[in-house]
Amino acid sequence: AVRPGLEADLAQLWAQLLGLETVAPHEDFFALGGHSLLATRLVARIREQFGREIPLLAVFEHPTVSGLARIMADLPDAGLAGNRPVLKPVSRQLTNSRPE
Questions:
Q1: What is the C-alpha separation between 68 and 26, in angstroms, rounded?
Q2: pTM for the full model?
Q3: Dist CA 24 CA 72 (whole Å)
Q4: Does the pLDDT value for residue 50 go beyond 90?
Q5: What is the per-residue pLDDT across 66-98, written as a single tens digit (0 to 9) for each?
Q6: Which residues are CB-neighbours of 22 under 8 A, at least 6 positions away?
Q7: Contact criterion met (CB below 8 Å) for 10 and 69
Q8: Helix, strand, coil percentages, rounded to 5, for the chain
Q9: CA-to-CA distance for 17 and 38, rounded, in angstroms?
Q10: Alpha helices, DSSP H only, in the chain?
Q11: 43 CB contacts (<8 Å, ≥6 apart)?
C-alpha cells in the first residue's frame, strides 16, 4: 500500500498522468505505459505541485513511486511551487542606430 504523505501524493499524480485509477508504490512508471514525454510532464508537475526540482534522469533511475519519493524527500524545497517567473514585455522594434 502507498504510504500517506509524499508517496500518496506522487501515486495520485502518476495515476492522473497515466490515466489509471491507482498506482502501487513499487510499480514501474514505464511498465505502466509511461514514456519520455510523460516523464517530462511528471517532472514539470512535481515542480509545480511539490516545489522540488528533480532531474529527468531521476525518473529513469528511480521509476517507482517509492523510489522517487525517497529521492524527493532528500531534496530541499526550492520554493518553486506556484511560483512562476515574471515575464516582462520586450520591444520588438529594431533600432538602426550604431555606436560610432
A1: 10
A2: 0.71
A3: 17
A4: no
A5: 999 988 887 765 554 444 444 556 666 665 655
A6: 2, 11, 15
A7: yes
A8: 45, 0, 55
A9: 7
A10: 6-18, 36-50, 56-61, 65-73
A11: 54, 55, 56, 58, 59
**AA identity, residue 53:** E
Q: Is 48 in contact with 81 (CB distance < 8 Å)?
A: yes
CA–CA distance, 40 with 35 (Å, rounded to integer): 9
CA atoms of 79 and 5, how far apart (whole Å):
18
Letter for the amino acid at 59?
Answer: V
How many angstroms separate the CA atoms of 81 and 63, rounded? Answer: 22
Q: Compute the distance between CA of residue 41 and CA of residue 47 in angstroms, rounded to an integer.
A: 10
Cα–Cα nearest to 75, from 97, 55, 95, 48: 55
Which residue type is seen at 92?
A: R
Whole-angstrom Cα Rg for the chain = 19
